[in-house]
């Protein structure tokens, strides 16, 4: 079983249960670690060395193990035999893994396994990717046994991490949330971030005391920042930086958005263009109830008072559409319901809708729009086609 897990690990993300077994095998013996590193090197070298290993025989390898055991003198201690057995066993695993690796990768012409687009994934600082479920609990452990964080149900918590931050040596993780799902993260300083569907957050696993706390967001998130006057918290979202000391606010900044929106619920924040030096004179101050819209193309900022509940209700599972054109609404529906929508009815493109949905299915949502402006649609699994 471990060989199959190793091969899956080399191909891409593995499940949490498999990750636990893999880490256990990796830590049992130094030879296991070296074997895996060799496999990774072979993979990185595009398997040039694997062309000559197709003749390897796992039975022959096992015979080597048995021979190694039989040549032990009877007066040697049991611990010596066991130690030698483990060394041979590691070689055996390596040989079998290499053989299967060759068949799996080289013979199949290196067909790369695509990541599940519906899975929540955590990309570690070393490039490894873990798949996170929305149920159950588990520890996220590094190769050397340190606890990076814990995953409990629909949340990852770094506040009890064993990792110590070192100046100028921050290690970043990246959390990817697919369409149709939401997730919560507690950062090492106690700051909580609720991530909406189709969002990505990059953050240090441990903040450095006395230094700025910086994270990067693509998509939408609600931040409840732990107050620390000595360490400003900065959210970089495309071309905008949001600087806070401790507050609650919502940021919407998907790649297709022409305007990045920041809605302040509590406290105060200052906004300024990314890549520029921060100063109070060159930043925009928000007070509770303010929404700032940043148009990056023209570098224009506008501020208005809003009902903050409309912009944070997504955390309660609601979908709020206010005076939105159908062509702009499609992306929000895709993210919220985890579907793909193709619109073949161009007459609907600029039709404006206003509605709020809660527990409705995507079919019920579409029927609501149909009652206002008739059109046909076709649903096949998670694919939706809007017809005339």
C-alpha end-to-end distance:
53 Å
| Large-scale geometry | globular
Q: How would a textbook summarize the main sheet?
A: 18 strands, mixed
Q: Which residue ranges are poorly predicted, with pLDDT under 50 across at least 5 consecutive positions?
A: 46-66, 71-82, 100-114
What share of residues are in beta strands? 25-35%
Keywords: Membrane, Transmembrane, Transmembrane helix
Protein name: FecR domain-containing protein
InterPro entries: FecR, FecR_C, Ferrdict_sens_TM
Pfam families: FecR, FecR_C
Structure keywords:
membrane, 3-stranded mixed β-sheet, alpha+beta, 32% strand, 388 residues, Phage tail protein beta-alpha-beta fold, FecR_C, FecR, Jelly Rolls, 18-stranded mixed β-sheet, FecR domain-containing protein, transmembrane, 3 domains
What does this molecule look like?
- The protein is an alpha+beta fold and 388 residues long.
- The protein folds into 3 domains: 2-106, no CATH class; 120-308, Jelly Rolls, CATH 2.60.120.1440; 318-387, Phage tail protein beta-alpha-beta fold.
- It contains 8 helices and 23 strands.
- It has helices at 2-11, 16-28, 30-44, 58-70, 78-106, 308-312, 326-337, 362-372; strands at residues 120-123, 129-132, 137-141, 147-152, 155-157, 172-177, 183-186, 192-195, 199-204, 213-224, 233-237, 240-244, 248-253, 259-266, 269-273, 284-286, 290-295, 300-305, 319-325, 340-343, 352-357, 376-380, 383-387.
- The strands form 3 sheets. The chain has an 18-stranded mixed beta sheet that branches. A 3-stranded mixed beta sheet has the order 20-23-22, covered by helices on one side.
- Strand 13 and strand 14 form a beta hairpin.
- The longest helix is centred in the N-terminal third of the chain and has 29 residues, at 78-106.
- The chain is globular.
- The protein starts with a helix and ends with a strand.
- This is FecR domain-containing protein.
